[in-house]
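Read as amino acids, C-alpha cells; as here:

___
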Amino acid sequence: MDLGLKGKSAVITAASKGLGKATALEFAKEGAHILISSRDETELQKTQAEIKKISGNPHIEYTVCDVMNAEEIQQLARKAVSLNGTIDVLVNNAGGPPAGTFEDFEDEDWSRAFELNLLSFVRTIREVLPSMKKQQSGRIINIASSSIKQTLDNLILSNTFRAGIVGLSKSLSQELARDNILINTVGPGRIATDRVASLDEKNAEKLGMTSEEIRKKAEQSIPIGRYGEPEEFARAVVFLASEGNTYLTGQSLVVDGGLVKAL
C-alpha cells in the first residue's frame, strides 16, 4: 500500500528518543519531510543524523522545543511552515509524568503533569490548525498510554491526564471533520523504551526484585508474550497519519500485544 506520505510535512514532538524517535524514523522511510523536536539539542543532532543514515531521507530537520513553553511551540510551527510550506501531520508526544500514588503528589506536581501531558497537546494542535484548515486536510496523532483503556497502578498522574487527551481528541474529531482533519489517540502498552525500563526498575526496587524479574513477570501477562518494539508502535501511528487512513477519526487505539483486557 502506498501511504501517500512522500513529501508530506510532519511535525513530531519529543522525538529525540523512544517512541517519538521510532515514529520519526518510520515517517522518514515513507519519504516524509520531518521536523523533530525535543529539549536536548545534542540528542536531536544525533537522532537527525541517525534517521538520515538509516532511511536515506535527507529531509530531516530539528528544532529545540520544550513543550511546556507556549512560545517555543509557536516557533516550532512557524519553522515547519517555513521549511515545507505547510503542516500535513502532527504527532503529539511528551515524556511521562513521575510514578506514584495520590498521596505522593502536591499541587505543583499536578500542575506540571497537566501542562506537560495535556496542555502541551492543546497548544501544539492550536498552532498547526491554521495550516491544516487552509489546505482542508490534516492528520493529528496524540500519543498517550494504555491507561486510556485501563488504569495503571502507581501512575495516577498519567491515568488522569492521558484520559484528558482522549476527551480532547474525541471532541476535536467532531469539530474538525468538516475540514478533513482526522485526529486519533494511540496508547502504547509495554513497549521496550527507556521509560518502561525506568518504571520496571522502580517497581523492582519497591518489590525487592530485579528489573529482569519484573520484565519476565510482565511478559507473562501479555498474550503475545513479549514487550513490543518501538517500530511496531510507530507503524500504527504512521498508518493513522497517512492517506491510507481516510475514515478513522476520534478513535483510541492501544498497541499492547493484547495486554489490556478492557473492551
Remarks:
- The chain has a mean pLDDT of 96.
- The first helix runs from residue 18 to 29.
- The longest strand covers residues 181-188.
- The beta strands are 9-12, 33-38, 60-64, 89-92, 138-143, 181-188, 252-255.
